[in-house]
Design brief:
The protein is of the alpha/beta class. It has ten helices and 13 strands. It is 35% helix and 25% strand. Monomer.
Length: 307
Amino acid sequence: MDKVIRIGTRESQLALWQANLVKDLLTANGHSAELVPIKSDGDIDLITPLYEIGVQGIFTKSLDAAMLANRIDIAVHSFKDVPTQLPKGLMNAAVIERGNVKDLLVYKNDTDFLNDTAYTANIATSSIRRKAQWLRRYPQHQLHNLRGNVNTRLQKLASENWDAAIFAAAGLERINVRPANSVILNWMLPAPAQGAIVVACRENDGFCREALAPLNHTETALCTSIERAFLRTLLGGCTTPISAYAYVSDGRVVFEGNLCSLNGDRSITVTRQAPVETAGGIGKDAAEEVLAKGGDIIIEAIRNAQA
């Protein structure tokens, strides 16, 4: 009988949706699979801002430990939550075709406050990247911490005296909870690998590596690897406002990356283009350009502020 692939997942509705997607893809290819829900540290502490927790892989390390202990065979993650350096013995085996990469503003009443420079709007988000970009555009606004899964954050927005909150569009759309009172933030550059789902396994698990190989979407894997190289070269994580987005157009990879100060007063944006065949290094090159343009000074100031 075929081996049953144990799929580790967080317990939120979105995480289970993503894990079930992978399960269905494996089943369609003739494999047997089952879900194994595991609670992450990031799901337990819903109060402390992510940038104050300061732990790489806060949403993934419990699943990593379960894989290394052979309690699960594979783990499904939102790729933007995965550290650029994996624990020894683990690998990213498949990147699923990407969904919506954009950020989304869910507002309470209307969006008139976006055009009223005299009004101090109250905006909620747990992302230091979103905070920095928002303050760069709307420096008069007040930002509030918002933690929890998608449903919890939507409920929190409804109960608090806030004007709006920022979400990843893919998360709300995948579980069909995007409110009508929402608008895509086309001007906001996403987190590296936002909108993508990755499946990890043990490096020495040839069976799972072979089972996952057909699930890998080559274009998404290339673009997210470029974005994550940009992030890795800047030594960034959830404590640094780093944004990056790569996409393929007419046989070329188009890339844009950004590093922002915490309050948005300083920002460095770089762009790159290259043929798909030779584009693998443009994320690293772009990050080195950011550092040469003063990004190292911004990063040092962020570290000092968070020390």
